[in-house]
């Protein structure tokens, strides 16, 4: 009843989504149809380019627009007899807004680490530069009163950040585990430079209009240059490739192991973070360096709202990768039965609460499909935990993982009636104890 009341009273301001959620139902909105029309029209005009005669604009100041709006105009001028399309600077994506948003999030993430006043835990942060040049926010929790016996490498779920697991990290510290967390990010997405926009040339007005249509679609749907979580680079919730998150995980894990030689290392992942951990663990080079994996609500079984989305996802992820399905999360998906935990999560500025993007959903479906085809190759020891009433990731996926994995040391526990965010459920203490007991037992065998 308390959860129902919270949902009703806050549904106007709090969107209850998490992990791989965002079931899509409003596929063919007016905005999508308009964008598809512009894209198809542009391609048709470009295909006709070789068959059109050379034309010259008589008025250098002619405005080329798709809707007649004074807010979006491409000006066609002549330079030495060659028509040139000039796109207004405000139509060109600017990194300044992205950088400001990232700076604000990173500042908040750093401030939370610095303000930590727990005398039993030393909490520190660092910035890790990936192989692609992106800056990733990472943090660590080191026990002060206990000898470090092992390491736990922690990966959060989609739309959240590593700082949400502060309480769990302290519990691990109290048992002699040093914890590392990273706010995972992804690959940069190509942008149109102002120089290119200033120098696009076509031989006919119709072809200038075709280029303008392509630019309009690009600006409207492709202006984000990266996705990010917490204090890391990129804007929230746009995931062009989970493979890059897997590669970043491997790189940072190598750094952690190099800094702590000789210590047993375990990996923990939640939801999409668990899927990233699993794919990384399938790499023999990673598998040989870790001693076990703990997974909560792993995104091994994620089903779209309708089977047709599986067919359309690759197409729409290519045409409209960052389009958000605004109707997908109107009511939201409960991820915890604890009202206080829900309020804390969705009032956190570092947690993304918007609708899922097309490319993000497709990437989750893609990594899920990959894992289901390769579960039999997993040999690392693992513990998987899942709530039976989880509506974000399918508990049947965890069962399949347990049944098909080749690991000789594997355990599964399903919690009846629990939802997606297990470490934020009312039974969180019991679940943390289950995880720590499993880690301690494996530590004795190392």
UniProtKB/TrEMBL annotation:
Domain Serine aminopeptidase S33: 148-186, 223-427
A Pfam family recorded for this sequence: Hydrolase_4
Domain of life assignment: Eukaryota
Membrane-crossing segments per the record: 32-51
Key words of the record: Membrane, Transmembrane, Transmembrane helix
Entry protein name: Serine aminopeptidase S33 domain-containing protein
